[in-house]
Design brief:
This is Pilus assembly protein. This protein is an alpha+beta fold. The chain contains 4 helices and 5 strands.
Length: 192
């Protein structure tokens, strides 16, 4: 019976295994911080790449790159411009192409522009390609759903109700009226 009372006193001074317990206590917060840093960094890189490639698509429209194309062909050309190469190491061009939302709309004075996300879902009205012959100013919007590495830890990064992150980019393109003329002075029939 006396040995039972001496056991806590002996264990109190014993330091064996303490580093394992300390490591077990510190590991979860370190993993949480590291995963959050990786996910925020990946989202920031993807946002920068999407912004740059959306601006490239706007430049293409400015120079008459969509003149004479059908709506489907114009949508494919914009998709190819935005999804060239890899967006991120874990998001290849094929994954980008399948998850990319594209919207091209003519901008008129006082016209309402629909929001990209409503009620935790992607607004389809904001991401449609409309053929408006004769318009000179266009709003180009692109949106990309990113895979979530830590859906439970970084829920503040997610803006869709399914727990995913949807990044959005936009650009305005003003069509150059002289870009659509070729060297002979003729102009293709514009669709956009």
């Amino acid at each position: 019976m006396v040995a039972v009372f001496r056991l806590p006193r002996r264990l109190w001074g014993d330091q064996r295994g303490s580093s394992l317990i300390e490591f077990a206590l510190v590991l979860p917060p370190i993993l949480l911080v590291a995963t959050t840093i990786l996910e925020v960094s990946a989202a920031m890189i993807a946002q920068q790449v999407l912004d740059t490639r959306t601006a490239d698509a706007a430049r293409m429209i400015t120079k008459g790159g969509l003149d004479g194309l059908t709506v489907a062909a114009a949508s494919d050309k914009i998709r190819a411009t935005v999804c060239q190469g890899e967006v991120l190491p874990f998001l290849t061009g094929a994954a980008c192409s399948s998850g990319l939302q594209i919207g091209v709309q003519a901008v008129a004075g006082g016209a309402a522009i629909p929001p990209a996300v409503t009620g935790g879902a992607i607004n389809g009205a904001a991401f449609s390609v409309t053929a408006t012959s004769g318009a000179s100013v266009y709003l180009i919007r692109t949106g990309l759903t990113l895979p979530s590495m830590s859906a439970y830890w970084s829920s503040s990064l997610n803006n869709l109700s399914n727990g995913r992150r949807f990044i959005i980019s936009g650009a305005i393109a003003k069509v150059d009226p002289y870009a659509k003329y070729d060297s002979t002075g003729s102009s293709p029939a514009p669709v956009f």
